[in-house]
What does this fold into?
Amino acid sequence: MEASELRNKVPEHTIGGLDRWVNSGIPTGDFLHAVLTHELFEAFGRADEINRAAMFDIVSYIYCELPISCHGNPKKVAEWQTHNGLEGPKEGGRNAIHKGSPENA
It folds into this structure.
């Protein structure tokens, strides 16, 4: 199945949260946070009726199309948020890497 086919199966009100998460590390709501941290019971408990019915499609999309480092466990999710997703550290922001820091050596 192509990426666009998987994406189109994710509910519209959910795909925006996933896009913001992947691109910018913007925190999701409790439902998506549970899905991203692979907390099955929590995810089903927090899902609305539409997301509950689409759970397989949401998980398939995340598994097949999202970067592996943005989901999997609470530590990976926290690190993704700290690093602002695919956009990376912001210049001069709280997550910026300073030019003289060991990370740039």
Observations:
- The helical segments are 3-9, 12-24, 30-36, 40-46, 49-53, 55-65, 74-82.
- The chain has seven helices and no strands.
- The mean pLDDT is 88.
- The two ends are 42 Å apart (CA to CA).
